[in-house]
Amino acid sequence: MRRLEAGTGLGRVRGDGVVVRLADAPAKDDAAVTGSEGGPPRVLYTDLQKVANDLWAAGAEAVAINGQRLTATSTIRSAGAAILVDFRPVTGPYEVSAIGPGAMRDRFDDSRAAFLMRELVDSVGLSFQVREVEDLTLPAAPEPRLRYAEPSISPSPSVSGSAVEGSSGPEPSGSGSSPSPSGGGR
């Protein structure tokens, strides 16, 4: 049961792992002078998606972003400037924590996400760090809520347990003959 809980995210897990830290680029002092309006480059939700997906691909057994445990149905998306993990806002600096095998760090370092993040460090100044952590604990994900399903209403049993007296069941409709497989009918 504990092994299944780790995979579903419904149980707290503990073990050795990796923490990937991403942060927005620092603000430049000359922005006010030059009239630049966009602000410093920011970590995007797609950056978090790439890192989380490549940690799974590197062998992670459990992943969390800023303490929000990811499951098979988790979403990482943006709403305006905010990044949401399962509809809960997370703020930078972002820590993507993963529990997994000892080779996970090396596999992740060789991943496309790690390569892209290192490129962003060099080109726009985002912060990207990967470190191994012993005895990491990830929380359980919240219990899933059914939002659209409703319990079925079971039919009430009839008093006699059979159909109305004198009736032998449903009457056939139509002429009683079936069309032939060749479509010839009557």
SSE string, helix = H, strand = E? HEHHEEEEEEHHE
Lateral strand order in the biggest sheet: 3-2-7-1-8
- What is the CATH superfamily of the domain at 17-135? Protein of unknown function DUF881
Please, how many helices? 5
List the uncertain runs.
171-186
Helix content: 10-25%
| Named CATH topology of the domain at 17-135 | Alpha-Beta Plaits
The first-level CATH class of the domain at 17-135 is given as Alpha Beta
Tell me the total number of β-strands: 8
Any idea what the CATH architecture of the domain at 17-135 is? 2-Layer Sandwich
Distance between the termini: 62 Å
Structural shape = globular
Architecture overview:
The C terminus is likely disordered. The strands form two sheets. Strands 3-2-7-1-8 form a five-stranded antiparallel sheet. It has a three-stranded antiparallel sheet with strand order 4-5-6, with helices on one face. A hairpin with a 2-residue loop joins strand 5 and strand 6. The protein has five helices and eight strands. The protein has 186 residues and is α+β, with helices and mostly antiparallel strands.
